TrEMBL record:
<keyword id="KW-0653">Protein transport</keyword>
<keyword id="KW-0539">Nucleus</keyword>
<dbReference type="GO" id="GO:0031080">
    <property type="term" value="C:nuclear pore outer ring"/>
</dbReference>
<comment type="similarity">
    <text>Belongs to the nucleoporin Nup84/Nup107 family.</text>
</comment>
<dbReference type="GO" id="GO:0006406">
    <property type="term" value="P:mRNA export from nucleus"/>
</dbReference>
<keyword id="KW-0906">Nuclear pore complex</keyword>
<dbReference type="GO" id="GO:0006606">
    <property type="term" value="P:protein import into nucleus"/>
</dbReference>
<dbReference type="GO" id="GO:0000973">
    <property type="term" value="P:post-transcriptional tethering of RNA polymerase II gene DNA at nuclear periphery"/>
</dbReference>
<keyword id="KW-0509">mRNA transport</keyword>
<keyword id="KW-0811">Translocation</keyword>
<keyword id="KW-0472">Membrane</keyword>
<dbReference type="GO" id="GO:0017056">
    <property type="term" value="F:structural constituent of nuclear pore"/>
</dbReference>
<dbReference type="InterPro" id="IPR007252">
    <property type="entry name" value="Nup84/Nup107"/>
</dbReference>
<dbReference type="GO" id="GO:0031965">
    <property type="term" value="C:nuclear membrane"/>
</dbReference>
<protein>
    <recommendedName>
        <fullName>Nuclear pore complex protein</fullName>
    </recommendedName>
</protein>
<dbReference type="Pfam" id="PF04121">
    <property type="entry name" value="Nup84_Nup100"/>
</dbReference>
<comment type="subunit">
    <text>Part of the nuclear pore complex (NPC).</text>
</comment>
Length: 647
């Protein structure tokens, strides 16, 4: 399983759990909104943990990879949503962003040797510890190096960082700032003091600018965020006036995420979330998506399958936090295109569990788009048990499930109206087709869905139309599969309750025909592998059963149809399958006669031919209409000649 597929599985698993939690909460009649919030926090936590685990297990992906950035994207949402209410929400948001940035920082590994090769290496190690929030380890390292002044600075810094109300003393902070400007200190010691004192990155000398330029956007942003937090707390604590956190932070984002910044599109996504401009970016990306669907290779989505997935998942999370943050058209474009993409892939890879879980994505579409996307999804749900579960989920989420099924059935059966069937003529080919097309599979599944949904009136109409179409087209494989799929006894019971006498006659005869067609298929397989039949008694038993069943069906089925004026479609079916059964009976008797050395069986075949040619029975009309009379006469003649030769 590749990483993109694994991430898709992880998100889908987390999302379906979240949706099921919502369903259970709705069914419990408990209106505690706090529970819904906790469900969402749990969802984001699961999502982050799953992606983080995937990143750690794939060593080839570095900190600049899409996988790392996606992991941090979900971590950002988790940190932003998992917060306590306060009087200063902008400050809370920035504090959570700082926590998120610190968690992004790479945890430094101490050199194997006990003594660092240089002071700069030592201070770089301390700096990496501090920006990743490992204050205690940094203090311990300073004490081990007997740099007690540094240990005191780091301890004071830690106290300020973890305190809710402690503010750095102006004199202390200024002294640290002066140390950061001391050119006699090594560069990374100065960078450490620059960070601790929240000094500006724009006024550095050349020796430090090179280091800052080597930082990625996350480290630079951490410097800015820390400086804004410290400045805000200091101004408020000393009542020095107002302070616009939002404006300051926006300026910092503009400094960090310059137009020239390169790399993954997810960097721009992260910037858009931080700057509250996600809708604008997704609108821009929607145009890129359209270009990709048109085959334009210049689109960022072209050949970049992970990006569509992330965008769809991003839309789901963002709209859950605030349903008005995104344009509905933009949101639905990404989610619906992603669902269609997953459907095709899951169908190709035979992954029904993925298809069965996509209802959770459909939940986030607008109602008018739910109809189109969900009806397409229903086509791919195969097992009856999965259909029952899908019905339960859909109804629990408030989907108009029957409306979706009507839409699905109308889409699939628009070419199967009676007037279309009436125009079909019998093909001259005698070939019975066992192959089932994708369209036929969709039709079979749709009928099964209608039965599962207890929408019997529609199910019965479409069942009969499908059976007739399959049989006239000689699609025996599709016919047998359909008959096996549906609960025929249940449907016949419903017909009886509604006095649908003709429908009952048709379904009962279709059931008998299906048994015969299956027996013929089994017989043809048996005679190719005679060595697998244990003894002659077993063979004789199978021959007798087949002959009896086929004869009963040929003579007794569809007798309620006398001519095409009764029902043209049913008459065509009678014309095809009654002669077919007689021909198969003749073949069985003749083969058995040769194998067993019993001329009486061949004579039975000739006796049957007398019945077929009896004008009072009118079978010869059926043979004429199905283009099989010549074939049957030729078979009977050959058998008659063989009997004469042996006598």
């Amino acid at each position: 399983m590749n990483v993109n597929t694994a991430m898709m599985h992880g998100f889908t698993t987390s999302l379906t759990k979240y949706i099921k939690d919502i369903i259970e909460q709705n069914q419990s009649n408990n209106d505690n909104n706090e529970d819904y919030y906790l469900f969402f926090v749990d969802f984001l936590k699961n999502l982050y943990e799953t992606s983080s685990k995937e990143f750690k297990e794939n060593d080839k992906y570095g900190r600049n990879s899409d996988l790392f950035l996606e992991t941090q994207l979900w971590s950002l949402f988790y940190n932003l949503i998992n917060t306590d209410e306060s009087l200063v929400p902008e400050l809370d948001r920035l504090l959570n962003i700082r926590t998120w940035l610190e968690s992004m920082m790479e945890k430094p590994q101490r050199p194997a040797q006990s003594i660092f090769e240089s002071k700069d290496m030592f201070f770089k190690y301390l700096f990496d510890l501090v920006i990743s929030g490992q204050h205690d380890v940094a203090i311990k390292e300073a004490l081990s190096a007997k740099n007690f002044n540094l240990a005191m600075i780091l301890n004071g810094f830690k106290s300020i960082e973890i305190s809710q109300d402690q503010v750095a003393d102006g004199l202390w902070k200024n002294s640290i700032k002066i140390m950061s400007e001391n050119v006699r200190l090594c560069p990374y010691e100065r960078i450490l003091y620059t960070y601790i004192s929240s000094s500006s990155l724009t006024l550095l000398d050349d020796s430090l600018k090179d280091i800052v330029e080597s930082f990625d956007w996350s480290v630079k942003l951490l410097f800015h965020v820390k400086a804004i937090i410290d400045e805000f707390v200091e101004i408020k604590s000393k009542d020095l006036g107002s302070y616009d956190i939002r404006s300051k932070f926006d300026n910092s984002l503009n400094d960090v995420f310059t137009p020239t910044i390169t790399g993954s599109p997810l960097i721009k996504v992260i910037n858009s979330i931080l700057s509250n401009k996600l809708n604008s970016l997704l609108t821009e990306y929607q145009k890129e998506l359209k270009d990709s669907l048109k085959g334009k290779k210049t689109s960022i989505f072209y050949g970049n399958e992970f990006l569509l997935r992330v965008m769809a998942q991003l839309c789901i999370i963002s709209s859950t936090i605030d349903k008005d943050v995104l344009s509905k058209d933009v949101k639905d474009a990404f989610i619906s295109n992603y669902i269609n993409s997953v459907l095709l892939q899951a169908k190709e890879n035979k992954e029904p569990e993925i298809i069965n879980s996509l209802y959770a994505y459909v939940y986030y579409l607008e109602p008018e788009n739910q109809v189109v996307t969900y009806t397409e999804l229903l086509k791919y749900i195969d097992s009856t048990e999965d259909k029952r579960k899908q019905k339960q989920f859909a109804e629990a989420l408030g989907f108009p499930f029957k409306s979706y099924l009507i839409k699905l059935s109308e889409d699939l059966f628009q070419d199967m109206k009676t007037k279309d069937l009436e125009t079909i003529e019998i093909a001259k080919s005698q070939y019975m087709n066992d192959h089932i097309t994708d369209e036929q599979k969709e039709i079979i599944n749709c009928i099964d869905f209608l039965v599962v949904a207890d929408y019997y009136e529609k199910a019965i109409d479409l069942l009969l139309s499908s059976i007739k179409l399959f049989l006239i087209k000689k699609s025996v494989g599709a016919f047998i599969t359909l008959m096996d799929k549906v609960d025929l006894d249940k449907i016949i019971t419903i017909c009886k309750l509604n006095d649908k006498t003709q429908e009952i006659d048709m379904l009962q005869d279709f059931a008998k025909l299906k048994v015969c067609l299956v027996l013929i298929k089994e017989w043809n397989s048996d005679i190719k592998n005679l060595e697998d039949i244990p003894d002659i008694t077993e063979f004789t038993s199978r021959e007798q059963l087949l002959t009896v069943k086929l004869t009963e069906c040929a003579m007794n089925c569809f007798n309620f149809i006398r001519n095409k004026n009764d029902n043209k479609v049913m008459y065509l079916i009678k014309c095809i399958y009654v002669p077919h059964l007689f021909i198969q009976i003749h073949k069985v008797l003749e083969f058995s006669s040769e194998l067993l050395g019993k001329p009486s069986l061949a004579k039975d075949a000739l006796d049957l031919a007398k019945i077929v040619t009896d004008k009072s029975k009118q079978y010869h009309y059926l043979f004429n209409s199905s283009h099989t009379l010549e074939l049957y006469v030729e078979m009977v003649t050959k058998t008659y000649i063989k009997i004469l030769d042996k006598e």
